[in-house]
Amino acid sequence: MGSDASAVERAPSPWAARSLLRRLATGDEVAHLVTLIFAASIIVITSLLVYQLWITSAPSRTEFGWKFWITRTWDPVFEHFGALPFIYGTILTSAIALIIALPLGLAAAVFLAELAPRKLSDTTAFLIDLLAAVPSVIYGLLGIFLVVPLMRTVIGPAIQRAFGFLPIFSGPNFGVGFLTAGIVLAIMVVPFIISVSREVLLTVPRDQREAALALGATRWESTWKVVVPWARTGIMGSVFLALARAVGETMAVTMVIGNSPRVAASLFAPGYTIAAVLANEFNEAFGTIYRSSLIELGLVLFLITFILNGLARLLILAAERGGGHAS
Amino acid sequence: MSRVRLIWRKSLNAFMLSLTGVAAFFVVSILFLILGCLIYKGASSLNWDFFTKLPAPVGEARGGMANAIVGSLKLLFLAALFGLPAGLIAGAYLAEFGGRTFSFIVRYTTDLLNGVPSIIMGVFVWALIVAPMKGFSTLAGGVALGIMVIPITVRSTEEFLRSVPGSLREGAMALGASKWRTIATVVLPAAKGGIITGMLLALARVAGETAPLLFTAFGNQFWSPGWKQPIASLPVMIFEYALSAYEDWHRQAWAAGLVLLGLVLLANVGTRLALSRGRAARGV
Amino acid sequence: MKKTILMVCLLLGLAVSLGADSTVLLNAAGATFPYPIYSKWFSVYHDNHPDAQINYQSIGSGGGIQQLKAGTVDFGASDMPLNDQLLGQFSFKIIQFPTVLGAVVPTYNIPGVSAELKFTPQALADIFLGKVTKWNDAEIAGSNPGVQLPANDIVVIHRSDGSGTTFVWTDYLSKVSQDWKDKVGSNTSVNWPVGLGGKGNEGVSGLVQQTPNSIGYVELIYAIQNKMGYGLVQNSAGKFIKASLASVSEAASGAAEKMKSDIRISITNAPGATTYPICSFTYLLIPEKISDAAKRDAIKNFLHWMLTDGQGMVEALNYGRLPKAVVAIEMTHLSEIQ
To answer: What is the DSSP letter of A316?
Structure first.
């Protein structure tokens, strides 16, 4: 019997109530098994990956233990390694990226899905999808040649004139740093948010909009209060995609973040992320502890993504509890 | 409703809607900026040599990236082969068959997999395939990219299958169709647009990935026979050339970026055309 | 329509899958610094010997060593010579062959200063240690009388990626400054006391060009190719030398004697009145025993060619050629490859 809870979770399924024999006869159980195997393979692959990371990071884990998470130094010569500056940088740049990309992307998606004529919307979405294919290196180069000078000469001074007294905007401004990296990341992840959100918004049934409008809502109110909440899970899904790309991004970040393993309060300060240090040092790393520490950083990133995802899902659950349609 | 409140709502409406337009315009202008940069810096290096010759050593002008273009195509082909069906079927499981907790675990794991830095993915596939095989290969590169394609495909497949209204499924059941038949012939086609978008997005993303290829496909100055030899690819060439000291290589790197984008554009256009023609043929 | 596309794809697939069978395919990986000359060598060698194909990828010295250890490449390349501890990690014996010489130069960007600055070893070490923080500090001004240096803060730029260039630079600083040796040391990647990190020579030079009052270090060939200004460094004889092919070769000429017993040698801060102090060899790492006869012969032939004809091509690409004495030593090692 399909209970109410599972009916909300899964697509509405009129087949659940049939007997086992009937299901076997029609080949549905086989289909169930086959799809289950593929779904399970994802878990298998990921577990294999984590296992491999765990094994290869053993030397540094035994050497440093829990202190690895709170140590600030990264010294390949004297073999003292600590993950704190990288954890800080990863979380900070991803947060900046999402804070910029989510409103921007969602607004653009709303425009494309609700307001723009269909042809324009399709062409624009199609062009935006192309942005996802631009290699990270190219974003990095554009970051160096365009964003960094802009930050150093125009944006940075402007912000510092207005808000320079705040600790997050204090200190010298080199052009490279957390904020620049966050901006470049935002540009890189915004196509994912727009692309998926737009598609999801397009699937919202017409009658929902029309009902709201019939009740006297303005266009904006119907969009913001009815359509967007309906598409909530899909939009959150796109945010997950964006977040995943942001924390794992290597080339573009390493070219604009300043590559200094430091924990600084100011957004203008140079910093480092886990993915960036991996990209920079992995190829040239000699020595067991050194390589092992780099792999351990990969493991740390995995754990961070795990936690961030968990937090985000809790947020969704809370939002769903508060009413609104799940799918 | 008071007049003041009405005026407020109307102005908010106008303001917010125009904001969305501004946002869309902003994003599109960034896109054109990037494209413009690529074209400006790269188009001049796009000549016949670029598409037909092998890379020449530094300082010699006669080089091209023919092997890298073919290499990227071969790798993307493998990535699609390994990753797209797996992602599609897994997504179908989550949307149509999944039990509550197991689906949750699968979804969570998929997001985790998506967030793995591409360099770690490369190291993983290196340990899995390259080290035992004692050699770099196109196959290993395809596997690495294929795994990276799965999460996005799974997410979009699930999302868009779920969005298909229940009435369609019930209609099929009423006609006596079994569950898997309904999914294959009714639900999937209905969700086709969104799913294909997801697949293309996934392929577009891995088309530009460099780090995993460095450890799996390696790179090659020459043509790569078969599937078990190292192979050149556009992102790796861009990476090497862009970070080098040579102006000629820089120009080639931009040109390669342009070609990469062009390939993705072609794939997108081709698929959309095929989709719409299919739609037109069925009179939808 | 669909059928024709399918046919075309299949044919293409077949076409690219077929390959020549009689060629010897060699794969190699390693250092980025010598990549330009290696790519030239392998290409010319292939033109002269079409049956031998050497595919070299510059994934970094550490990467080259890792892949060689795992047996996924036929030989490797490294900017850093392998010490005994590293050699011990291999399950087979390696012979190291120096191939070319390179140098690292200090490059800077000071608004209003176009002169070529002279740096003492102490000044360089103290700048990179963060002890000297302003351009008009006595340590710098002392060697540059007549140049108006501003009282601005120095922005230090270093490499963020592990590289042989960093190794050479830090090796030199460790030799000339005890402070540096104690606090930082030398490696392809170190814990820099101050400064921003740029990826690759491109990254460092880009940051230097964009950041006023900055100083960084790049490979000589890079500076020459990009027509960048760079400073003079004081060598162990007290003279300020500008890096050039001649001054770099000078540094290696005295090394041959010591290389007879151990081919790995550091030539930073080498003696001599006209030597440039920040140079080094770069090495090819060849397994002593190669079981595949065709591959073995190809590698030996290549090495022989590299030591003779190949050396004639290096200066055009701004690398220093090996001194004759060193070539002689390497020829004797060639016979050890079996």
So the answer is: H
